Every structure is written in structure tokens, then in C-alpha cells.
Amino acid sequence: MEKTKARNSSSHPNYLHLKALKQSSLIQNELQTLSSQKPAACFYIQFPDNDFHHAIYIKERTFYELRDQISRKAQIQARRLFYQEPSSSKRLIDEEFIRQIPNGQDMAAEFLNSSDIDGDIDVILIIKV
């Protein structure tokens, strides 16, 4: 009677192994779905001392996502982001501005060392027309 009980029980080793495999498969499918999602936007940014542009893909149109992707591509630690249109002064980038940047916008970046001890860098994105 104890053998029958063990076979039907959900604590049986084969059952647990199959359950773990199924969960692992579901997790892998979910990760593939998340990684295959289209980015929210792509911008083309020319970094200093480069003749070419880098494609910067952002998953969501937020300040933090744009700052982190620029930092990753340029291998810097960006602190603040500014933008500057031709013949205008620089302005701090906010969420509203990021939502309004057209997909595929061409920009040039300038890096300014901040006076902070941590060595963070301010980035100015110059909008090209």
C-alpha cells in the first residue's frame, strides 16, 4: 500500500523532475519572448573621436534607459544628459523630451567631465538636422 501511495504522490522523484523541466522550459520561452520584443526606439549617436554612428536601442522611452544605453555603448558613466539644437543653448533632457525624439534621430555626443569626485560624465546630445 505504501508503494502505491508513493507512485501517486506528487513528491515522487520522476514527477518532480518532469515538473522542474516543464518550469524550466516555460522560463526559457518567456525569456525568449522578452528578448525578442522590439525596442521602443533607436537613435544614431556619433561619439567623440569617431567617424561613425552607434545605434542606441532603448526598450522604453525613459531618461534612465537612454542614459544607461549611452553609458554602455560609450563605456562611460553618464550622470546627466543635455540636448542642444542648432543655434540654441543646452537644456537638460527629461522624460517628455525623450518621448518626443523621433525614432532614428541622428545626434552627436559631447562628453564633459563633471567636477564630482566619482568621475561621472555629463553628455550633451547635439540634434542634427
Strand content: 25-35%
Tell me how many strands there are.
6
The domain tally reads 2
Provide mean pLDDT, rounded.
81
| Strand line-up of the largest beta sheet | 2-1-5-6-3-4
Order of helices and strands: HHEEHEEHEE
- Give the end-to-end Cα distance, rounded to a whole number of Å: 81 Å
Principal-axis shape equals elongated
Helices and strands: which structural class? alpha/beta
Pfam families: GRHL1_C
Domain GRHL1/CP2 C-terminal: 39-125
InterPro entries: GRHL1/CP2_C
Protein name: GRHL1/CP2 C-terminal domain-containing protein
Q: How would you describe this structure to a colleague?
A:
InterPro entries: GRHL1/CP2_C (IPR057520). This is GRHL1/CP2 C-terminal domain-containing protein. It comes from Aspergillus keveii. Pfam families: GRHL1_C (PF25416). The protein is α/β, with parallel strands linked by helices and 129 residues long. The chain folds into 2 domains: 34 residues; 87 residues, Ubiquitin-like (UB roll). 37% of the residues lie in helices and 28% in strands. It has 4 helices and 6 strands. Strands 2-1-5-6-3-4 form a 6-stranded mixed beta sheet, covered by helices on one side. A hairpin with a 6-residue loop joins strand 1 and strand 2. It is elongated.
